[in-house]
Amino acid sequence: xxxxxxxxxxxxxxxxxxxxxxxxxxxxxxxxxxxxxxxxxxxxxxxxxxxxxxxxxxxxxxxxxxxxxxxxxxxxxxxxxxxxxxxxxxxxxxxxxxxxxxxxxxxxxxxxxxxxxxxxxxxxxxxxxxxxxxxxxxxxxxxxxxxxxxxxxxxxxxxxxxxxxxxxxxxxxxxxxxxxxxxxxxxxxxxxxxxxxxxxxxxxxxxxxxxxxxxxxxxxxxxxxxxxxxxxxxxxxxxxxxxxxxxxxxxxxxxxxxxxxxxxxxxxxxxxxxxxxxxxxxxxxxxxxxxxxxxxxxxxxxxxxxxxxxxxxxxxxxxxxxxxxxxxxxxxxxxxxxxxxxxxxxxxxxxxxxxxxxxxxxxxxxxxxxxxxxxxxxxxxxxxxxxxxxxxxxxxxxxxxxxxxxxxxxxxxxxxxxxxxxxx
Length: 424
Ligand SMILES: [Zn+2]
Description:
Mean pLDDT: 93
CATH class: Alpha Beta
CATH topology: Aminopeptidase
Shape: globular
Radius of gyration: 22 Å
Low-confidence stretches: 4-22
Helix content: 25-40%
Distance between the termini: 35 Å
Strand content: 5-15%
CATH architecture: 3-Layer(aba) Sandwich
Number of strands: 14
Bound molecules: zinc ion
């Protein structure tokens, strides 16, 4: 699950206002762009490839000449909106003479061929990123609800459970598996209390000078204007995901990250949630930046870095294959966004979208982000309550395997199908 409409509104609100701030960063705790690190990508991409990825994938909702100007032999990218300084990227003349981009991860065809069919993932480094934190943080993250006397549903615990069941199966196939998070505790060392001053700064740039410290509860309509809510968002959304990105990029250095989530429809009161009949599936890869996001210097830089590292073609193929397998196994229909202004459907399965999430933007290798199952649909809720089990059990009159095994087996079979074809 990504975020609910209130957060979307606030994210845009913060984004637009902080873009007006002097440093032009999307967020006060964002890393400033390091344009000098892009020098190594000179002449690694042709004009046509750059255009295909820029217009078709990353800026599919448009990009103005005042931010990126593409000429036949080079592109100029605005580095600093205040100083009006530009980065010049020179294109390779053709595919034959282009310099290799040499990313720090490996595509399937570049891996050594597996010696045994059973070890189809041998040599592949996979990092599992169970979405959210869970545990004592689940309520703060708004990833917790409870129906009557039934045990609560907590996305952060469920995603960790999926990762723990998935890891041995991937290792069995030869993969080297690491965890971005392996317990229901934050990866970041910062806590909301450490971020109160930053929260006040965020509110100040949004025009709120004397904010309230606390809010009444999840239903407080003005909670987003309080120091507590802002410091919590900065903690579990920003600081946490940025720290996970540092771990992925500097320490784990995988060839592929799998972000594991469960989706949900708005449930209202967490103690008396709305159950729905909706149930669906989609997968995300990075792309489809909205024009307002590209105004921020850091986001523009990170978008270009992702484009030049050439992760898209690999991650789309993995996502498309995994999505088709998961769709067949779960029989779920594709999720259709009601406000598709920040997504673009990509690939051929009908289940994969490009979208600019912080994790998919900052992890510097192919990232496939899974969003199966609506946790507060009647059927999925019943399956979650049934927990993990062998074989099948009747769920609302239909024989079903455990939701965890179905999730894990779908991911494993999707990867096997992709790597079997790609490592031939
Ligand atoms: Zn989620």
